[in-house]
Amino acid sequence: MRKILVAALLGLVLLLLLSTARPAAATHGDLSGLYGGNLRVSVRNALNLNPFTATDADSWKVIPLVYDSLARIDPFTLLPAPWAAASWSVSGSTLTVTLRSDLAFHDGSAETAADVIYSYNQYKSVGKAPSDLVVSGSGSTVTLSSASAGGLMFGQGLLLPIVKSGTVTNPVGGGPWELVTSSSTSWTLAANAAHFWPPYLDTVTFSVYADTSAAALALLSGNLDFIGWGLSVDDPGTIYNVGGTNRSLLFDATIVNNPGLTQLVVGFNLRSGRTTSDSEFRLALADTLSPLLARQAHANTIVSRSPVINEAVPWFNPNLPIYQVVTTEYPAPTYLLTDENQRLDSAGYLDRNGDGIREKPDGSPLSLVAVGIPVAESSRIFTIQASTVDVFSRLGLAVSLESVPSASLPARLASGNFDVFIASLPTELDPGFLSDYFGSTGTKNYVHVVDSALDTSLQSANVALATATRQSAVMSVQDQVMTGGYFVPLIHFNAIEATVRGSFAGWVNMPGGVNNFWTYQKVHVTSVGSLAATLTLVPTSVKTGATTTAIAKVTDAEGVPVSGASVSFWIGGSQVASGTTDATGTLSAPITGPSAEGPTDVQVTIQASKLGYAGATASAWMTVAPDVRALAVAVASSAVTIAPGSSATITVTVTSGGSAVSGATVSLEVIGLGGKVAAASGATDAQGKFTTTFTADVGPRTQFRVVATATATGHSDGTGSTTVIAEQRVGTVEPRVTAGLDTTTIIVAVLALVVIGAIAAMMGRKK
């Protein structure tokens, strides 16, 4: 009973250990049913996974998967959180990072401070890190210092990939995914099981599709799992004929909506000489804008109140002026432009000739050029553009709307040849993009603002390493931009994405959509239920070394047999067999009885797992008895009779069931005086034999008995014997001695009798 209890406890410990195992292989040895599977993702262009040369958005969705970085953007706080860094500290313009101790590249070499230093120096050389960045360190410690852009380094800079030193041309990464195969149109990444945070999926394959229609058709046909770019508002409802059936992403896939990072913005040209450079004129126009009406005109959008989208929680400033024209809804929607008209009048923009069109304060003609995209690109955005210009015209302004293709619009804005623009502009989660849009030398300064106070705030935001300091500076920038009416966001678009319905779960929602680093780390196959398992042993009693048949039966929660389930068999913490179930949910495996000193109850445990199912375990007991078999011992002598001074070879042969037993212990005993063996004990060889030499030293001819006893584990003892005769020594034959008194004693006795007789005779004469 005690042995049964101990075995049961060991079995329980085994189950607990196995149930908490981390991924170790393709199926990760996990019973959750979530590890494994392949995700297929569409991309629009060929991927370049070299972080020093890649510039396109598709590549930069994939690059973070292949390389570690010091930080990742936390999906909840939206701030940088340690990744390859175990921790960091800030002192002035210097960031000191302590690296994790378990970092390794895909080739097995360790990631160290030297690799971080190498990587950031390369980024500095290609303009992706501040020119005054100084990186130093050794071992697991790295310091990064930049007087001009420490805040940018602490934000976007900590996300830069770490590559192995000396691999700038063909970079080697160490991220949770590794590129394993590629072609001109397809790239497959495999989960790095050795990473400190291995993904759930086995692989992700990115393939090029020509457009949304091609990708949507592939997804609806079962050849794609995720369209890796944002959809337009009309894409989900498009009908596709798939095998004679009309389908759409809206009804036959899963549509995911998240706040997007692109804003529809009304901007004003602040260049000297432009009417919109006059703040009173500009603010009068800004007051007529209507984010709420814009949202009504364009579905799947969210009202914007700042250059930083509302959902960028750490950076959004809620205390900003809200430009919203007042309307009345009854009896018909009407813009109430009283305040705006008074503002223009006060600023000197009057209709002096009574033609209904205002002139400049100096009386010269006033006309405005507004630019936006053509109606063919988006009828909804064009409607917003037209309504905006219409409201301007109701103020008595001469405004013309020019359509510029979106591909050409940035160049037109950069040229400054306009007064007002309505454009869709991208933003980012990190506020570093504000310098591009509003810095005097910003590459996307489409409003052409040159403002030293604004530059100071932007510089403060870029320099500040401390998050609280940077937040304060960023909010100050937003306040100056919105209060000055330079750049008025109306709405930001939702990120609309399509995934295959029901196959995967764990998508991570963030501003910008689910196509982010954390999704690829956390997405897994959808669990469809739990497995149930039973184990039967036939027979339940075996001898050590003999086999029993273990029969595993695997079903789902409803009792339906599950084929293709992986089953492993365990005894005492060691896996002894494995396989997959057949169409009936059954797997049979031979199980060998382990060693046992006596009858022992042994627990056999199975683990059943299949992708998409929570796994199951089951156990059964068998009794294992030691394999006890009798030993046969044969003893032979090389000679039946040995001459004086000669010897005989004694050979002991040990067998069991007709087979030689090697390693058996043999003990010899010689019965008879004067005989002996050279070795009284030893072990049998591979042929089951043990040999020794017998000798004897005797006078008369003597017969001896040589007895051998053999013992071996798992066998009962055996004995055997043989007879050997030793001849007498050569020389004088000693007289045979009969039993009784020796000669001296007899002589003494005879003399004693003679004396006694003489004395008796003398006594008789005296009488």
Average pLDDT: 89
The outline comes out as: elongated
SS field, number of helical segments? 16
> Strand percentage, roughly?
25-35%
Biggest β-sheet: count, sense, barrel?
8 strands, mixed
C-alpha Rg (nearest Å): 48 Å
Number of strands: 43
Terminal-residue CA separation: 99 Å
Structural class: alpha+beta
Measured as a percent range, the helix fraction is 10-25%
Spans of at least 5 consecutive residues whose pLDDT stays below 50 are 1-28, 732-748
What's the quick description here?
The chain has 767 residues and is α+β, with helices and mostly antiparallel strands.
What does this protein structure show overall?
The chain is of the alpha+beta class and 767 residues long. It contains 16 helices and 43 strands. Helix 7 runs antiparallel to helix 9 and helix 13 packs antiparallel against helix 14 (467-483). The radius of gyration is 48 Å and the shape is elongated. It starts with a helix and ends with a helix.
Essential attributes:
single chain; 767 residues; 33% strand; alpha+beta
SSE layout and pairings?
Elements: H1 2-19, E1 38-43, H2 57-66, E2 71-73, E3 80-82, E4 85-91, E5 94-99, H3 113-125, E6 134-138, E7 141-145, H4 150-155, E8 177-182, E9 186-191, E10 203-208, H5 212-220, E11 226-227, E12 240-242, E13 245-247, H6 249-252, E14 254-268, H7 279-286, H8 291-297, E15 301-303, E16 326-328, E17 334-336, H9 338-346, E18 367-372, H10 379-394, E19 398-403, H11 409-415, E20 420-426, H12 433-438, H13 452-463, H14 467-483, E21 487-499, E22 504-505, H15 517-522, E23 524-525, E24 529-538, E25 541-543, E26 547-556, E27 566-571, E28 574-580, E29 586-592, E30 600-610, E31 613-625, E32 629-630, E33 632-637, E34 641-642, E35 647-656, E36 659-660, E37 665-671, E38 675-677, E39 681-683, E40 689-696, E41 702-711, E42 715-716, E43 718-726, H16 743-766
Parallel strand pairs: 1-10, 1-11, 18-19, 18-20, 24-31, 25-31, 32-42, 34-43
Antiparallel strand pairs: 2-3, 4-5, 5-7, 6-7, 8-9, 9-10, 12-13, 14-20, 14-21, 15-21, 16-17, 22-23, 24-26, 26-29, 27-28, 27-30, 30-31, 33-35, 35-36, 35-40, 37-39, 37-41, 38-40, 41-43
Helix pairs in contact: 7-9, 13-14
